[in-house]
């Protein structure tokens, strides 16, 4: 890398450093262990962070890991959680996350969910008493890699208003969908809010404004002030319709006993687990038609080639990442060892 100088009157870009995915995995794993997490928790969270980076979801990749580290240190995440998996019906898998991470709960139940879906044609996983779920698309993608059609969703502590409310009443409640195919899954993953909460937090830290329609201030009025938005409430995408989808996701996520969003403890303060829920629906398309994945792929290719619609587009996976030195120092500061590297340099302006 080479240095670039900032234009006159503009702040210099934050310095970054390149890491291979293997280096990032090691750094994340060591950071979780240093924060008190068990080997199983460390492996699960490191894999999830790197998977998000691999798919270009940096906001919920390594940059999101400090939220988990803080949760481990404060007691919001049980550092040695032992998820308990039960199968109350042939096509139903339930997991008590033991106030740990949703990632470890899913890891523990994945094989049982896949087996149930193949046996029954469709199976449902419900997780309770978990920390926030992270990248929902990771769970859906993993199921699609098993040849299953997947829908996943989770709720969060109340951060978002819906039609009729002037303050937060539900979470950002993300949802993901993935289709299997030999060339790799097609997947989309989105919050039911107009934007992710972490983007507003980042804007507040940077002193940046946010677009209209993202949030309300504490008085319930629309705002472009990110700090006021953090003290107020996010807004759903699509107005009333988006709010309905958010509440639908919450109802499904809380089915086995996870907290409703209004009752969940904060994920970024205090020492209590938010005890949230998550669900995954796994469908074996061969129960209906063996050729479904190929028919779906051909149809989606037609949409792309004839109409410019690239649904669940496949992105080229990265083999290395470029992350802010401040983030790497933060991770290393927990006791992990940052990879040796040349002196950090500022990224080019166009990056």
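Q: What amino acid sequence fits the structure above?
A:
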């Amino acid at each position: 890398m080479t240095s670039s100088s900032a234009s006159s009157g503009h702040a210099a870009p934050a310095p970054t450093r390149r890491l291979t995915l293997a280096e990032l995995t090691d750094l994340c794993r060591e950071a979780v262990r240093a924060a008190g997490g068990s080997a199983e928790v460390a492996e699960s969270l490191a894999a999830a962070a790197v998977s998000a980076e691999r798919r270009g979801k940096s906001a919920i990749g390594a940059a999101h890991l400090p939220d988990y580290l803080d949760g481990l240190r404060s007691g919001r995440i049980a550092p040695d959680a032992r998820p308990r998996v039960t199968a109350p019906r042939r096509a139903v898998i339930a997991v008590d996350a033991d106030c740990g991470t949703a990632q470890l709960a899913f890891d523990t139940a994945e094989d049982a969910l896949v087996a149930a879906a193949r046996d029954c044609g469709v199976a449902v996983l419900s997780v309770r008493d978990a920390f926030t779920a992270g990248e929902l698309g990771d769970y859906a993608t993993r199921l699609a890699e098993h040849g299953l059609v997947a829908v996943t969703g989770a709720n969060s502590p109340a951060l978002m208003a819906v039609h009729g409310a002037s303050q937060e009443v539900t979470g950002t409640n993300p949802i993901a969908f993935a289709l299997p195919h030999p060339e790799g899954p097609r997947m989309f993953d989105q919050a039911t809010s107009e934007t992710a909460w972490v983007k507003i937090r980042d804007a507040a830290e940077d002193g940046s404004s946010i677009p209209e329609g993202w949030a309300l201030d504490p008085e319930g009025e629309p705002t472009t002030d990110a700090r006021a938005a953090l003290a107020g409430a996010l807004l759903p995408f699509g107005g009333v319709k988006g709010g309905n989808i958010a509440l639908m996701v919450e109802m499904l996520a809380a089915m086995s006993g996870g907290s409703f969003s209004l009752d969940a403890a904060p994920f970024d303060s205090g020492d209590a687990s938010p005890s949230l829920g998550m669900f995954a629906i796994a469908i074996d398309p061969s129960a209906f038609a063996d050729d479904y994945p190929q028919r779906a792929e051909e149809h989606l290719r037609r949409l792309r080639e004839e109409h410019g619609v690239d649904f669940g587009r496949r992105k080229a996976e990265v083999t290395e990442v470029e992350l802010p030195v401040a983030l790497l120092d933060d991770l290393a500061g927990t006791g992990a060892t940052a990879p040796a590297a040349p002196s950090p340099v500022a990224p080019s302006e166009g990056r």
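Q: And what stands out in the fold?
A: The longest strand covers residues 92-100.
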